Amino acid sequence: DPGLVSFLAERGVPLEVCPSANVALGASPSLAEHPVDQLLRAGVRITLNTDDPSLFGVTLSEEIHRVATTFGWTQEQVSEVIGNGWKGRFGRR
Questions:
Q1: pTM value?
Q2: How far apart are CA 46 and CA 34, in angstroms?
Q3: Do residues 39 and 15 make contact, with C-beta atoms less than 8 angstroms apart?
Q4: Angle at CA 16, nearest 5°, toward 91 and 83?
């Protein structure tokens, strides 16, 4: 929904995304077809996550590598996504 994507981007709402879990559960047909790249390019503050590493067989490092490789992300994009996790945490320390 383009309106929702704009809303998330404009307000800086952090969005936790678990691409491998989404593919495993059938929410996305494949990693290459997952909307994570479109969300990042639209300015949504996404974070990459594993959902459940023991269930889906992927560590956070592997998830980041898979997604970055699939979409050809630059080091700057990877750093942005990692930083979004810190910026989107609950509470201020």
A1: 0.89
A2: 13
A3: yes
A4: 65
